[in-house]
Amino acid sequence: xxxxxxxxxxxxxxxxxxxxxxxxxxxxxxxxxxxxxxxxxxxxxxxxxxxxxxxxxxxxxxxxxxxxxxxxxxxxxxxxxxxxxxxxxxxxxxxxxxxxxxxxxxxxxxxxxxxxxxxxxxxxxxxxxxxxxxx
Length: 135
Fold this sequence. Notes:
It is a single chain. The protein has one domain: Orthogonal Bundle (Arc Repressor Mutant, subunit A). Helix content is 53%, strand content 8%. It is built from four helices and three strands. It has helices at residues 2-12, 21-33, 36-48, 71-104; strands at 18-20, 60-63, 66-69. Strands 1-3-2 form a three-stranded antiparallel beta sheet. Helix 1 (2-12) crosses helix 3. The mean pLDDT is 81. Residues 97-135 are annotated as: Disordered.
């Protein structure tokens, strides 16, 4: 699905929303070899639309050697990106509220440190009796 989203994004950025298959391949090669960011972003978006089929849903049309993004495709892409932005903002708000709650918790003092890491037991010495002497 992330491949289909990449095609939508590429077509949306082209003049008149159309590109030949060769142009699409060139852009895809650049995007998928330029680092993990593009791949990760497309995978995150694809998780939101597991049943995406850009041709069956008529988001993209094929015409004499070109692929063309339809108005439905542009609207779909816009709504998907808006939903992703809202989800990102919601995550940021949740993280901020967690930090706020954590900042209100009392600060605990650190546990006292031991010198050797072992506990030493002190024995009381009892007076020793010496043999051969009487009291």
